[in-house]
TrEMBL record:
Residues of the full protein shown: 68 to 602 of 639
Annotated family: Belongs to the adenosylhomocysteinase family.
EC number(s) on file: 3.13.2.1
UniProt lineage: Eukaryota, Sar, Alveolata, Dinophyceae, Suessiales
Primary gene name: SAHH
The S-adenosyl-L-homocysteine hydrolase NAD binding domain, residue ranges: 290-452
Organism: Symbiodinium microadriaticum (Dinoflagellate)
Keywords: Hydrolase, NAD, One-carbon metabolism
GO biological process, one term: S-adenosylmethionine cycle
Protein name: adenosylhomocysteinase
One GO cellular component, as annotated: cytosol
UniProt superkingdom: Eukaryota
Primary enzyme class: hydrolase
GO molecular function: adenosylhomocysteinase activity
C-alpha cells in the first residue's frame, strides 16, 4: 500500500471532545506527566521515529504525547479492531505532532493496513524504536523479512489460500502485495528498528514457526499461547531481530520510578537483565492492572453494552487468576451471585476462601446469566456450552484472544442466526429459539464495550513504556549493550513507580528506620520485598 503522510481517523470533528478528555486524563496520569517534566527539557528522543501499535485510547493519547514531548516523531495504530476511541484518535491526529491510523470497528484488512501504515515511515526505512501490544507489529516485521528472504531465494510469494485463519490470510495478502512493490521493505525495517517495548508478548508465539508452518499455526491456537516462552526460544535460536523489553511483567508503576532512578542514577539503566534472570512477574503490573483495572472495567462494559441489572444474577468467571479475582469481586460488588471455574487447585482454594463457589461449566451452564472468560487460555466457552445456556445469557471475554469463546464454531453453526443489537453487541439465536448475547464478538469486552482501564492504572503501565523506550534508547540505539533477547525492567522500579502515584491519592508512607531495616534484613530505601515475593 502507498505510504500515507496524513493520518486516517474516523471523524476529525471529534477532536475537540478528545482534547478535553486528554486534559482530564493528564491529571489522572501522574507518572506520564512526571516523565514530561523530567525528560522533556533534554529531548532524549529528538529526531527519532517511535512507532506504536497499542489501543488508541485517551490514555494512550497521553502516552503518545509524552513520547512526542520527549522529542519523538510518532506514528500510531491500534492493536485491536474495536479498541480505538475515535475522539482520542482525532485529537491526537489534529494536534499534528503524531500520525494516527485508527478507528473503532476496523475490518481485519483495514486493521493490518493501519498496522503497515503505522510502520512505514515516509522518507525512512522504518522506525527507530517500536512500542507494541500483542506483538502484531513485531510479528509483521519478522514475517515480512522472512517472506522477503524466501522470495529472494526461490521466488515464491506468500499464499493467503494456505491458511483458513482470516487474520493470517490478511497478513499473507498484505505481505504478498508488499513484496511485489518493494522486495526488501521489511528487511530494511528490521535493520532500522533497534528495539521494542512490548506490553503483551503472548501473540508472538506465532513467530516461533517457520514460513512454511504459518498456515498451520491457524489450526493450532496453542502456538499463540506461549509467547514469552517462544520469544525467548527465538532469542536463544538467534531468530529475534532486535531486543525486546517485556513491560508486561514489570510495568505499571515503574514509570515514575524510572524517572527518578534514571535521573538520580543513570547507571541503573544498565541494571536490566535478560528476563530469565529476573523475577517473572511485577507486582505493580499484575496486582494492579489485571486486578483493579478489570475490577473497574468488567461491570462497566457489561452495563454499557446491555444495561442489564447485575444484582441478583448468577455470574460465572472462568479463571481465578489476577484478572479473574478483579472480575469476581466486581460482580459480587454489583450484587451478583458469583461462580468460579479453575484448573489450578491453589486458585480454586483461594476462590473458596473468599466465599465463591467453584464449579465446572458443565454443571451450571444452564443456570448462569453472565459468563466471563478470564483465563488467557482457549476453548473455555464452547459451542456446546452456548447451546445449553439459558435464553439471553450474556457471554464475554476479558482474557486475551477471542478464542476463549468458540466464536468461529458459533458463527459457522448451521441454523444459528445473528441479530446485531448495536455495535459490539450481537444476539446469536439457535434453531430452538433461545439466544446468547455475545459482547465485542468475543474479543476483549472492556475495550470493545467500554473504555478499557481507567487512566490512573494505565499511568503505571505507560510510565513503564516510556522507561522502556528510554532504556532502549540508551542500550540499543546509542549503544549495543543488549543482545536480541527479552529483558525485564528491574524490581526496584516497581516500588518507585508505586511511590510516585501515592501522593495523588493522599497516602502518607511510614519511613523504615535503619534499626528496623536491619532487623528485617532489607535496605532502608528498598527493595522491601524479595523479587520472588508478590505482595
Ligand atoms: P493468570 O495466569 O493469573 O490467571 C489465569 C487463570 O486462569 C489461572 O489461575 C489459570 O489456572 C486459569 N485457567 C487456565 N485455564 C483454565 C481453564 N480451562 N478453566 C478455568 N480456569 C483456567 O492470568 P491473569 O493475569 O489473570 O490474566 C488472564 C488473561 O487476561 C491473560 O490472557 C491476560 O493477558 C489478560 N488480561 C486482560 C486484561 C484486560 O484488560 N482485558 C488486563 C490484564 C490481563
Amino acid at each position: 500500500a502507498p505510504t500515507q503522510d496524513d493520518p486516517l481517523v474516523k471523524d476529525m470533528g471529534l477532536a475537540e471532545f478528545g482534547r478535553k478528555e486528554l486534559t482530564l486524563a493528564e491529571h489522572e496520569m501522574p507518572g506520564l506527566m512526571a516523565a514530561r517534566k523530567e525528560f522533556g527539557p533534554s529531548q532524549p528522543f529528538k529526531g527519532m521515529n517511535i512507532n506504536g501499535s497499542l489501543h488508541m485510547t485517551i490514555q494512550t493519547g497521553v502516552l503518545i504525547e509524552t513520547l512526542a514531548a520527549l522529542g519523538a516523531k510518532v506514528r500510531w495504530c491500534s492493536c485491536n479492531i474495536f479498541s480505538t476511541q475515535d475522539h482520542a484518535a482525532a485529537a491526537i491526529a489534529k494536534a499534528g505532532t503524531s500520525t494516527v491510523f485508527a478507528w473503532k470497528g476496523e475490518t481485519l484488512p483495514e486493521y493490518w493496513w493501519c498496522t503497515e501504515q503505522m510502520m512505514t515511515v515516509p522518507g525512512a526505512d522504518g522506525c527507530d524504536q517500536l512500542v507494541d501490544d500483542g506483538g502484531d507489529a513485531t510479528l509483521l516485521i519478522h514475517k515480512g523479512k522472512e517472506f522477503e528472504e524466501k522470495f529472494a531465494k526461490d521466488g515464491s510469494l506468500p499464499d493467503p489460500s494456505s491458511t483458513t485463519n482470516a487474520e493470517f490470510k490478511c497478513i499473507l495478502q498484505l505481505l504478498r502485495d508488499s513484496i511485489q512493490v518493494d522486495k526488501t521493505k521489511y528487511t530494511r525495517m528490521a535493520a532500522k528498528c533497534k528495539g521494542v517495548s512490548e506490553e503483551m508478548l503472548r501473540v508472538l508465539g506465532v513467530l516461533g514457526t517457520g514460513c512454511q508452518d504459518f498456515g498451520a499455526v491457524s489450526e493450532s491456537a496453542e502456538e499463540t499461547t506461549t509467547g514469552v516462552h517462544r520469544l525467548r526460544e527465538m532469542a536463544a535460536k538467534g531468530e529475534l531481530l532486535f531486543p525486546a523489553i517485556n513491560v508486561n511483567d514489570c510495568r505499571f508503576f515503574c514509570f515514575v520510578l524510572v524517572i527518578l532512578v534514571f535521573t538520580e542514577n543513570r547507571a541503573s539503566r544498565n541494571t536490566l537483565l535478560p528476563g530469565k534472570q529476573q523475577q517473572q512477574d511485577c507486582v505493580t503490573k499484575s496486582k494492579f492492572d489485571n486486578v483493579y483495572g478489570c475490577r473497574h472495567s468488567l461491570p462497566d462494559s457489561i452495563m454499557r453494552a446491555t444495561d442489564v441489572m447485575i444484582g441478583g444474577k448468577r455470574a460465572l468467571v472462568a479463571g481465578y487468576g489476577d484478572v479473574g479475582k478483579g472480575c469476581a469481586f466486581a460482580m459480587r460488588g454489583a450484587g451478583a451471585r458469583v461462580l468460579i471455574t479453575e484448573i489450578d487447585p491453589i486458585c480454586a482454594l483461594q476462590a473458596c476462601m473468599e466465599g465463591f463457589q467453584v464449579v465446572t461449566l458443565e454443571e451450571c451452564v444452564g443456570e448462569v446469566d453472565i459468563f466471563t472468560s478470564a483465563t488467557g487460555n482457549f476453548k473455555i466457552i464452547t459451542l456446546e456450552h452456548m447451546k445449553k445456556m439459558k435464553n439471553n445469557a450474556i457471554v464475554c471475554n476479558i482474557g486475551h484472544f477471542d478464542n476463549e469463546i468458540a466464536m468461529e464454531d458459533l458463527e459457522k453453526c448451521p441454523g444459528v442466526k445473528v441479530e446485531n443489537i448495536k455495535p459490539q453487541v450481537d444476539r446469536f439465536v439457535f434453531p430452538d429459539g433461545h439466544g446468547v448475547i455475545v459482547l465485542a464478538s468475543g474479543r476483549l469486552v472492556n475495550l470493545g464495550c467500554a473504555t478499557g482501564h481507567p487512566s490512573f492504572v494505565m499511568s503505571c503501565s505507560f510510565t513503564n513504556q516510556v522507561l522502556a523506550q528510554l532504556d532502549i534508547l540508551e542500550n540499543c540505539t546509542k549503544a549495543k549493550n543488549y543482545k536480541n533477547d527479552v529483558y525485564l525492567l528491574p524490581k526496584k522500579l516497581d516500588e518507585k513507580v508505586a511511590a510516585l502515584h501515592l501522593p495523588s491519592l493522599g497516602a502518607s508512607m511510614t519511613k523504615l528506620s535503619k534499626e528496623q531495616a536491619d532487623y528485617i534484613g532489607v535496605p532502608v530505601e528498598g527493595p522491601f520485598k524479595p523479587a520472588s515475593r508478590l505482595k
